[in-house]
Write a structure and sequence with these properties.
Phosphorylase Kinase, domain 1, alpha+beta, five-stranded antiparallel β-sheet, 282 residues, three-stranded antiparallel β-sheet, Aminoglycoside 3'-phosphotransferase, Chain: A, domain 2, 8 helices
Amino acid sequence: MRVPEYAIPQDIELLSAERNRIAEVNSVYRCNAVRAGSPVSFYLKVCKSTTATMDNERDALIMLSGVNFPVPRVLWHGADRRAFMALEERDGVILRDVLNPLSEDHKPHMTNRVLQELGELVGWLHTIDVTWGEQKRTSLYGFLGEQEIDDPRFREICDWLRSNQPESRHEVFVHGDLNDANVLVNGAHISAILDWESAGIGWREYELAWILRERRNYMNHPKNREYFLSGYTAKSEYDPAALRWCEVMNCLHVAFWCRDQYRNFMDFNLEKAREAMVRTNP
């Protein structure tokens, strides 16, 4: 796979590059190379359009590396025809595969331990005192069109959200898109949290809701939630009522996105939203 020559320093001899076809915001290549006579593996990100998200991710990674938060180290960066940066490769498999019983990398004996560690890391992240711009996905804090759907289930959930909206939002530095594909697990521990394009100041409880959303095959046992939140509260705190509201809104969004092609997932997330509406425990 050919990578942009301007993104590779002259002292790097590139041996191979494989493009990650599922990358959304940027073009991503996994590269093997030789530098100063030694083998080196790295990920090269090349901006597809605006440089804003890459600059934001680069600055976030450098800041977080400075406090020893587990993120890939920025090896080099720059801009030519497009902005680019190279990141060190971290060992591990994505958290989704560790949690999912259908994956060959599923590790049931580690699930709750890893979720507790993730909770601790997110709690630590949310206590980092930094001046930053607004995170990139704040539109998720409100309706995306769900209120226009002619379905009594959507209407019921929208009415509940209107009637129970939190009076205020506690804002902290957030990842902005922290999901089970952005966490690497190596052995029994988390080796890195990836993809910080959307990072910035955002709603603390919505970040938690994004992480805690139940799937059909995993993250659907009360113990999963309990372990994550126990790790989180070891480092930070949250508002249970605001978290419940954010979870209902998050499930509503997923149902909305699935309504045309994935009706079964729409039904599942609508049910999860209704369950959250009547939940009494944190």
